[in-house]
Specification:
With 107 residues, this protein is mostly helical. It has a single domain (4-104), classed as Phenylalanyl-tRNA Synthetase, Chain B, domain 1. The chain contains five helices and two strands. The protein has a two-stranded antiparallel ribbon. A hairpin with an 8-residue loop joins β1 (21-24) and β2 (33-37). α1 crosses α3 (48-74) and α3 runs antiparallel to α5.
Amino acid sequence: MNNLGLILSTLYPNAVPLRDYRVQDNSDGNGPYIAYWDDVKLGPQPDAATLLAAESVALRRAEARKKIAEAEARITPRRLREAILTGDKTWLTAQEAEIAAERGNLA
């Protein structure tokens, strides 16, 4: 399970990696594993079934965050100036709609 850190951050959004849990990969072909888990703060360590069930949600949210960052990066000062000076906010409105749609994928 190569996305273990991403999955744990999805399941436990208030946990602090390296303090509350640590994911480690020894490069021995076994992949990453939970090397440390603060069960006092986080409760019992999640089992493999829980991790697998959360993987698709974690990947969907990561992809949504990436698309939001890309769309926000396209809204440059030059683009904003053009929208203000020309009065044509069509492009800017489309970007904002794209960002709003991707934010819906974060739920």
